[in-house]
Amino acid sequence: MIKCNLREVMMAKKIILILLTTIILTGCWDSAEINDRDYIFAVGIDKGEDENLVFTAEIPKINEGSEEQRIIFTQESKNLSNFYNDSFVRSEKVISDRLMQVIVIGESIAEDTETFKRLFDEIQRSPQINRRVKIAVAKGDAKKIIETEIPSNPIVGRYLSEMLIKLKKSNVQSIYTFDEALLNLQGFGSGLIPIVEKFEDSLKIENAAVMKDYKKIGNLNSLENEIVMLILDPKSSNIRNINLNVEDSIISLSTVNIKSTNKIKLSDDKLSVNYYVTLYCFIESFTLNNKSLADKKFIDKIKEAAVNQISEQTDSTINKVQKIYKIDLFKIKNELYKYHNIKYKKIEDNYQQVFENADINVYYAVDIKSTGLVK
User: Fold this and answer.
1) How far apart, in whole angstroms, are the C-alpha atoms of residue 312 and residue 242?
2) What is the Cα–Cα distance from 77 to 239, expressed in whole angstroms?
3) For residues 80 and 125, what is the distance between their CA atoms, to the nearest angstrom?
4) Quick one: which of 143, 355, 205, 328 has its CA closest to 266?
5) What is the pTM of this model?
């Protein structure tokens, strides 16, 4: 009888322990239900008064009708942490950035080294923000970008996120996340961050901000950015149509494949870099006249015109990067470190000057694989 009572007591204790454990594990006292949170999808950050920052946050309204709606609120705070603390006391809900899609940095911050570095350091240290959050620099104020009303896609954070993913997959932009921007700025001291700007009743991303030592020093337009991407990763590069006017014939070439090799030579402090790029194209459109695409001489003139046009764009871009901005966006330094390490070590401390004086050339060839069906 005594054994039976002891067994029952032990069993009862186990049941109580299991129940208490279940209550403790399932009862998250320091968290909030999803309906008690405001999830920031996008935030724009500009410079404010007295070294403050102006945060403009976009919060989608959840389960409030069939139409997509959002809340926009602006808060001036000392830093990112204070922004969350200040927001906490002004709303009955908890502000969360766990679903953050995009951070848009205002031009005023991007052009201020100390403020930009301080902001990047805060984002890096944040325990909540995903390091893969997308990032862009605003043309002008980030606040205006976040406040843009886009009829076709009302949630700006989602719209910019999808656009940046598309541009990255198409190799139109080399950087699209905070993590990538940080790695480039820390590892190479430079990088290209997409520029977002207002366009009619929407937003567009065509240009890139040239960042050097945590400061925006200029822009590359879409064509210039295209050339940089071609040199960096020719196999994945996305070259737009080459539109030509050859002997009063309007022709459009579409590139379907790119092959490239390079030859780097470093002798003392003399650096020469030659890229050899072949563009495999087909004729996408052709204004019919008395010219025939079956005429080999005419095809050769088309190839020559195409090479001249893209070579001119390339020379201009290389000059801008090398002589004006004076930064190695082509990551030649990385190639030297990997494949010419012994020679590179000798000029490592003077690499900046060596790069500025380097002889950098891109030699193009165009191969027209198909002329299409013409009359």
Assistant:
1) 13
2) 43
3) 10
4) 355
5) 0.85
For 309, what's the count of Cα atoms within 13 Å in the CB-facing half-sphere? 19
Q: Which long-range contacts (CB under 8 A, 24 or more apart) does 182-188 make?
A: 182/120, 182/124, 182/131, 184/211, 185/120, 185/211, 185/214, 188/328, 188/331, 188/333, 188/334
Per-residue pLDDT of the chain (375 residues; tens, 9 = 90+): 444 455 555 655 555 555 444 444 444 434 555 566 778 999 999 999 988 999 999 999 866 554 578 999 999 999 988 888 877 666 667 778 888 999 999 999 999 999 999 999 999 988 878 889 999 999 999 999 999 999 989 999 999 999 999 998 888 888 889 999 999 999 889 999 999 999 999 999 999 999 999 999 999 999 999 999 999 988 888 888 999 999 888 999 999 999 999 999 999 999 999 999 999 999 988 776 767 778 889 899 999 999 999 999 999 999 999 999 999 999 999 999 999 999 999 999 999 999 999 999 999 999 998 876 544
Tokens of 60: 């989608």
DSSP 279-327: EEEEEEEE--SS--TT-HHHHHHHHHHHHHHHHHHHHHHHHIIIIII--
Q: Homologous superfamily of 226-370 in CATH?
A: Nutrient germinant receptor protein C, domain 3 (3.30.300.210)
Domain boundaries for CATH 3.30.300.210 within the chain: 226-370
